[in-house]
Amino acid sequence: MKKLLATVFLLLMTALFTYGEELDNIQLPMRDYDGIELPTGTFIPILNTQDISTEYCPEGYKVKFISTNDLFLHETNIIPKGTEFFGYVEDIHEPVVGTHSSMKIRINKMILSDTFEIPIKGYIYTSNDNIIGGGLTPPAEYVKVPHFQQKFQGRFWTRRGPTLQIRPGAKRMMGQHTKVNAGEEGLIILTAPAWITHTLTN
Of residues 94 and 148, which shows the higher confidence score? Predict the structure, then answer.
């Protein structure tokens, strides 16, 4: 009798141990989530959070922006309002005679309100190849140029007295530093597709 009970006990223990191993190997079903790709050239409205100037910000200076609108794609809020964007001043050209200073600001990541971080590639957008500033300075002098006018009367041309025209001279003023003020609105343009694998839910 004791041997029978011992055999039954061993069989039960073996069955329980095998069942436990099977439980450990069970794969729970994962949520099926398809990432969403934001294409190159996508514009993201943002607000600058600090003063950025070529006068006191060196190359590599870290910057932060905040999105001002919800960005939807296929009825999904991909980039909610208030998402933070981070980057740095990539390139600076100092002011010279004839040209104001310029800079390019690169954006390399965004952080959602739940602290999830997504890498992106983009720049603060301008129509001049994303270069902020760099315009021509005003002329440093103006020169007077005589201009003779002629008037047709009947069959003859008659010359009237000269008039002076003021035209910009060859010299230009010294350039000024370029600044992006805190609170100034702008756009980020994506220069590579951004793969969004995480969105917020209400």
Answer: 94
Architecture of the CATH domain 35-136+175-196: Beta Barrel (2.40)
In this structure, what is the dihedral angle of CA atoms 67, 69, 71, 72, given to the nearest 10 degrees? 160
d(CA 47, CA 117): 19
Tell me phi and psi for residue 15, to 5 degrees.
-65, -45
Non-local CB neighbours of 81 within 8 Å, separated by 6+ positions? 67, 68, 69, 70
pLDDT 10s digits, 173-199: 999 999 999 999 999 999 999 999 888
Check: CB of residue 134 under 8 Å from CB of residue 178: yes
CA 44 to chain centre: 7
Q: Tell me the per-residue pLDDT of 13-72, one tens digit each, with 9 for 90 and over.
A: 666 555 554 444 544 444 445 678 999 999 999 999 999 999 999 999 999 999 999 998
Report the C-alpha gap between 78 and 67 in whole angstroms.
12
Domain edges within the chain:
35-136+175-196, 138-171
- Residue of 63, 86, 85 lying closest to 179 (CA atoms): 63
